[in-house]
Amino acid sequence: MPDPAIFRSMLRGGWRDLPFTHFRNGIEVHWLSRADPQVALLRYAPGAAAPRHRHPGLETILVLEGEQSDDFGTYAAGDMVMNPPGSEHRVWSDPGCVVLLHWDKPVQFLD
């Protein structure tokens, strides 16, 4: 039986010591799981944006720091958003943010 992966104090900034790598322009990633489902931390620089994309599976977002916006609103630290399969949106962060993401299936970029 495999051991669990444990990440301590994530709500109190425990992610700050994790290594991040380039994901998209202005967005860095730390992969917690690359297999389906995919789980990652994304760190947006101020003003960074992800282009319009579709979710073939459920996407769950938990904002850990800062604010993240999409076509439906702006979400602050502690907010959780669940985008259903088939949903589409653009994502950006004016002040910068860190979010925990869970994708049932990889996203499909449309732009």
Descriptive key words:
ten-stranded antiparallel sheet, globular, 111 residues, 0% helix, Jelly Rolls, 54% strand, mainly beta
**CATH fold category name of the domain at 33-109:** Jelly Rolls
**Fraction in beta strands:** over 45%
**Text of the CATH class of the domain at 33-109:** Mainly Beta
The largest pleated sheet is described as:
10 strands, antiparallel
The separation of the N and C termini measures 41 Å
Shape: globular
Q: Which architecture of the domain at 33-109 per CATH?
A: Sandwich
* CATH evolutionary superfamily of the domain at 33-109: Jelly Rolls
Number of helices: 0
Instruction: Please trace the helix and strand order, writing H or E for each element.
Output: EEEEEEEEEE
What is the alpha-carbon Rg in Å?
A: 13 Å
Mean pLDDT: 95
Structural class: mainly beta
Description of the structure:
With 111 residues, the chain is mainly β. The chain has a domain at 33-109: Jelly Rolls (Sandwich). It contains no helices and 10 strands. Strands 1, 2, 3, 4, 5, 6, 7, 8, 9 and 10 form a 10-stranded antiparallel β-sheet that branches. The chain is globular, with a radius of gyration of 13 Å.
At a glance:
This protein is an all-beta fold and 111 residues long. It contains no helices and 10 strands.
